[in-house]
Amino acid sequence: LKNILTLAVHVHALFDSLALWFEELDTSQNTQHMYRVCGSAASICKFPSTVTFKTNDPLHFPLPRPLYLAFHAACCKVVWDSGAAE
C-alpha cells in the first residue's frame, strides 16, 4: 500500500470534495510530515490547526508522499480561488 491516507468518513468527504487540504510545514524546522489543516472556515473549524502523519510500520504502511498532498492542495486552491467551490 502506497500513498494511502486513512481518514474518518466525514473528513474523507471534505478531502474528496476539495474542501479540506494539508499544507506541509517548513521542513527545515524539523517538522517532517507535519501539515497545516486548510480549507473553508466552516469545514475546518473543529479540526486542529496542524496534524502530524505517523506510521508504526513504514515498510507496509508508508506515509503519503508530500508531493501528492501538495498536488491535492494546489487543486483545492484553484477550485476555491476560482469560485468553483461555491
Could you characterize what this model shows?
By secondary structure, the chain is α+β, with helices and mostly antiparallel strands. The protein is about 35% helix and about 15% strand. It contains three helices and three strands, in the order αββαβα. It has helices at about 10-15, 40-45, 65-80; strands spanning about 20-25, 35-40, 50. A three-stranded antiparallel sheet has the order 1-2-3. It is globular.
Jot down its keywords.
3-stranded antiparallel beta sheet; 86 residues; alpha+beta; single chain; 3 helices
Question: Structural class, from secondary structure content?
Answer: alpha+beta
**How many strands, what sense, and barrel or not for the largest sheet?**
3 strands, antiparallel
Question: Number of DSSP helices?
Answer: 3
Q: What strand order characterises the main sheet? A: 1-2-3
What quaternary form is this?
A: single chain
How are helices and strands ordered from N to C?
HEEHEH
Helix content: 25-40%
Tell me the β content: 15-25%
Report how far the terminal alpha carbons are from each other. 34 Å
Based on DSSP secondary structure assignment, what is the total number of beta strands? 3
- Radius of gyration from the alpha-carbon trace, in angstroms: 13 Å
Summarize model confidence as the mean pLDDT.
88
Poorly predicted ranges (pLDDT <50, ≥5 residues)? Answer: none
Principal-axis shape equals globular
What is the secondary structure topology, with strand pairs?
Blueprint: H1 9-16, E1 20-24, E2 34-39, H2 41-44, E3 50-52, H3 66-82
Antiparallel strand pairs: 1-2, 2-3
